[in-house]
Amino acid sequence: MAKQALRGKMKILLAQISAESREERSKLISAKVTANDVYKRSQRIAVFLSMKDEVETSSILTAMFKDKKQCFIPRYDMTSRDMDMVKLHSLEDMRNLPRTKWDILQPALNDVTRENAMNTGGLDLILMPGLAFTNTGARLGRGKGYYDTFLNNHKSVLGKCPVTMALAFSEQVLDTLPMDEHDYLIDYIISDQ
Predict the structure, then answer these.
(1) 121-126 mean pLDDT
(2) What is the pLDDT of residue 110?
């Protein structure tokens, strides 16, 4: 199945998960993440701010601030494939962020006051969204290439990639996915199963 057709199928599947189920399962996934040794060892962590059909990350954000982790969030440039990971200072800081056309909270592109992870040593761990995954690390994103481009840039600039951890509902974990040569494999898939 072509990537675009599979994206459409996965969006329909994710839309069928009730808000209650999404909330309950997101809490389970969040608990698995914060109990994971990779999370515990990591200090500089990037986490996505959830769209309506994704694993809800608010519990992870709360834990990160409680655990005194340095928290970074994506800032997408919708005119390109560029994405920065910029510092989030608190939950209150998050609540005050503007919304994008995708209804995602994110700092404005012209907000130059925020620390950019690439300029200050990079990241230890990235918690990643996606539409589908395999247990062998394949990931199907939304088709813009933001995360693959960021990982490539991180490796080019800093000589290494951060550990990658995808958050998924069990319906999103498939046997196979179409992959291109520029697609990065994910190190860990954390699901509600």
Answers:
(1) 96
(2) 82
Distances (CA, A) of 35 to 28, 106, 136: 11, 27, 21
The per-residue DSSP string of the chain comes to --HHHHHHHHHHHHHTS-HHHHHHHHHHHHHHHHHSHHHHH-SEEEEPPPPTTS---HHHHHHHHHTTPEEEEEEE-TTSS-EEEEEE--HHHHHTSPB-TTS-B---TT-TTSPBGGGTT--SEEEE--SEEETTS-EE--SS-HHHHHHHHHHHHHSSPPEEEEEE-GGGEES-----TTPPPPSEEEE--
Rounded Cα distance between 87 and 85, Å, is 7
What does the pLDDT read at residue 128?
95
List the structure tokens of 65.
């601030």
Q: 186, 139 in Cβ contact below 8 A? A: yes
